[in-house]
Amino acid sequence: MICGPGGIGKTSLVIHAVEQVIARFPDGQLYVDLQGYGPNPLTARHVLGGWLRDLGMDERRIPAGLMERSREFRSIMSGRRAAIVLDNASGEEQIRPLLVASGRCVTFISSRDPLGGLAASLRLRLDGLSVTESLDLLSRVLGRERIEEEAAAARQLSDIAGGLPLALRVLSGRLVDGSQPITSFLGRLARQRAENRLLSEFTFGDLSVEQSVAISREHLTEPTRRAFDLLGLHPADEWSNWSVAALCGCSLTEAQDLTGLLSRAQLVRTKRTSGFQTPRFYLHDLVREFARDQAARQLTGQDRDAAVVRLASAYLAMADLADRAIHPSGVRHQGRTDAPRHPLDAESEQLAITDPFGWFRLESEALAAVVSRCRDIGAWELCWELSDACSVALENLRLWDVGARCAETGLEAAEQLDADRARAAVLRNLGEIDRELGAKDTAVERLEQSVDLFKSLDDPFGVIDASSNLGLVQMRWGDPQAAQERLREALDTARGTADARGVSWTLEILGECAALRGDTDTGVRCLREATALFEVAGEQRGQAFALSNEALLALDDAGWTPGPCVAPGNGRTRDASEAAWIMALLDRADGIFHELGDARNSALVAVARIRERIVAGRDREARALSRTAKPMEGFELDWRLRGLLVHCDAVLDHRRGARMSAVRGCERALVLVQPFGDRLSTAGIRLHLGVLAQDGRRPAEATGHYRAARELYRSLRREDGLQVCEQRLAQVEP
Asked: Residue 45: which H helix or E strand, with range?
């Protein structure tokens, strides 16, 4: 049994397979094209009549009834060794009477439908050719030399065909006369795609991709055809059944049934995503073009826009649930309530609530596509609210490109609505992105605008959140005093409005700020109060942040800055209980991040663990942890975090005598960390580079690094680092 979509090469494969083993069937081969998806499919009765004549039965003795003909056919084939090919079947009832019970006969069946009711001994599902196989097919028609000469263009051509042999045959047929280069033909395809006419290019002679897909669509019931057309409007490249339910305006069960029918018809493809039990679905690019074209033909503009609004409303409802699961202790601001929310079933809601970060990671590109589609149809409320609902998760997942696209589109929506509430929220979101990307001036400008807008709206929640983010920018760019003043003002406002979320998060940032200023006692006090408040409010993510930063503060105090950059044991001596306490903090934080699926911050804990081992002089354990940590997802998402890990490796290289490797590591770490505005880490790396230059007898270079580190430590009021820099400068300066 071989199944697959139209144009995938089922018939060619069956014929090829039979030819390979033809010697095994000395009693003959029977072939029939059942035309199952044509306008006049053959009946089993008709096929049997022809076969019985071919097998030598007298025309007058051929029974009239189907069952009698089937019985005669099986009787004749009994004991024979023959190959039977039933090509292009549309259903079990069409082929059951044609099956032979004899174990000496083999029946090859091809169909677009999996025909799950048949007890086939072997099943193959064809999903398309690989890039290499696609290029090989093009080479057979166009010549290998031509494909090699235009290798990049040929690869693009195979990508457009999406591994569909029929599409490749059509494209190669149009190019076979050599009248135009492949590159020129790609330009034509691009123009046709821009005008929504790409499928018109996939016809050559009697070969037509559009006609092949149309045949499958025509065999669907009316509700299933409508669902297929609506899927052409889905902005995402892949989707789950809950979004199909919203798009089609039906229940989840009905959506599952529709998706199943479309999958059986080989119009919808299925993929499994690691970590998620529910399947994801997608359309082949050319099938999607056809569905989109059908939606334009069969549905009114009002119906199309209504479907997109239902879909976007469902995404907003899901994003709201996931966002609240990430920070359950309260709202960031007031005003995200005007856009419609599509009702969800309990099963779908659990997808967002159980693993909110996982859901946002899975749906990130879909969210950006839906936000963009809302802009296209002028659904401005949905546009900005959806961009806002996903801002926290996209920030923490380090998906800056997706977050920026959503926020920029959200800001356009705010301008179209002339709504200050929307402007304030989206400017705050953009300021957070600018902060993380190292664009200090733009971050400050946008966050200050956000604070002013929230104040004019008398929205204390928004003021607190935007002010805290502004304080975070000031802290990271080396002005902890100004940051502390702004954060204390935000804290007073939060306490005055009983904003539990604002109080706890502001305290958490104040703790980081105090640590940068060298005020360990204040830092610990703020972080511990934040931890307690987070725990009461059920804000697990905040609790893990506070625990992580308390551990990092303790590590800094124990000698990470600047001790390990200079020599093992340079920091103060710690007792076993202090080391155990730091590890306990990290264990709690790591457990929470793991439970939330927050890979980025699990990676942060991993760096802290490596630092702890280095401070303790347990270099072998630190190196083993580093090897384990590098594949973690967080390091791929956060270039600053990669820089911190690279510097840990550089410290370990230095301490085992690999000076040049340590120099290269420090230089890479500096490139990653410095643009982010992490002045404390930058100072430590600069100090380390100075030590390495001094060891290499390069005093002028060492002096430059020591002076740069000294200024950074002085601005941060870090006496420990300042003292080491002064000592080192005294050794290299005349």
From this structure: helix 44-54
